[in-house]
């Protein structure tokens, strides 16, 4: 019930024409992109994917001096759902954000989701971000030091600690956080977004 009251105050905020600015965060494989797309569709807001902004062809990253102005320009819109962590860009993202949604599923569930997603992408040879040619392969996903699965294993605990600290940090007390610990909680959260 408390979550519903918080969301109602965020969404209404005395003005039915307000737009939401939401950042969905979570460890790779947690399901943050799927949830962010569902939120954007439900609220009819633009969906912004940090990975799409960052990654170039041949898995080359965009330098921060190019990435940050593009991100700032996109965040000038009155409402959006931003999918991604990119901790170093937090000051830019959270300067504009109303709500931070943390997808915090357990380690084994997150790892299983990461493995299944990587296998599905490798099997279908899916291009991850249009125009980049970047895709997962079985070798890259399962037998490489650049493996997204290895990344999930290495970052799950550190991300969890960092996000818990962020929620308690007085510097971010002006932000509203929602921590979703299961797919059922995510569905309940989505149901409140009407």
UniProtKB/TrEMBL annotation:
Residues in ATPase AAA-type core domain copies: 24-66
Entry's Gene Ontology molecular function annotations: ATP binding; ATP hydrolysis activity; kinase activity
Alphabetical list of SUPFAM superfamilies matching this protein: P-loop containing nucleoside triphosphate hydrolases
Top-level division of the source organism's lineage: Bacteria
One Pfam family of this chain: AAA
Residues spanning the signal sequence: none
Keyword Signal: no
Listed InterPro entries: ATPase_AAA_core (IPR003959), Cytidylate_Kinase-2 (IPR052922), P-loop_NTPase (IPR027417)
Keyword annotations of the record: Kinase, Transferase
Statement: the UniProt record of this protein carries the keyword Nucleus: no
Name of the protein in question: Adenylate kinase
């Amino acid at each position: 019930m408390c979550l519903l009251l918080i969301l109602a105050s965020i969404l209404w905020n005395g003005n039915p024409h307000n737009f939401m600015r939401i950042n969905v965060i979570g460890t790779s494989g947690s399901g943050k992109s799927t949830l962010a797309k569902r939120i954007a569709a439900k609220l009819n807001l633009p969906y912004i994917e940090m990975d799409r902004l960052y990654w170039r062809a041949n898995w080359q990253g965009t330098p921060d001096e190019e990435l940050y102005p593009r991100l700032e320009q996109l965040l000038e819109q009155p409402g959006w759902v931003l999918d991604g962590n990119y901790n170093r860009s937090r000051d830019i993202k959270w300067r504009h954000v109303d709500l931070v949604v943390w997808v915090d599923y357990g380690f084994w569930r997150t790892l299983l989701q990461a493995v299944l997603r990587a296998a599905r992408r490798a099997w279908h040879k899916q291009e991850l971000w249009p125009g980049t040619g970047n895709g997962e392969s079985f070798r890259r996903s399962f037998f490489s030091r650049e493996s997204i699965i290895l990344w999930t294993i290495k970052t799950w605990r550190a991300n969890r600690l960092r996000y818990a600290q962020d929620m308690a940090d007085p510097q971010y007390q002006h932000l509203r956080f929602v921590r979703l610990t299961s797919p059922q909680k995510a569905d309940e959260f989505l149901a409140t977004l009407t």
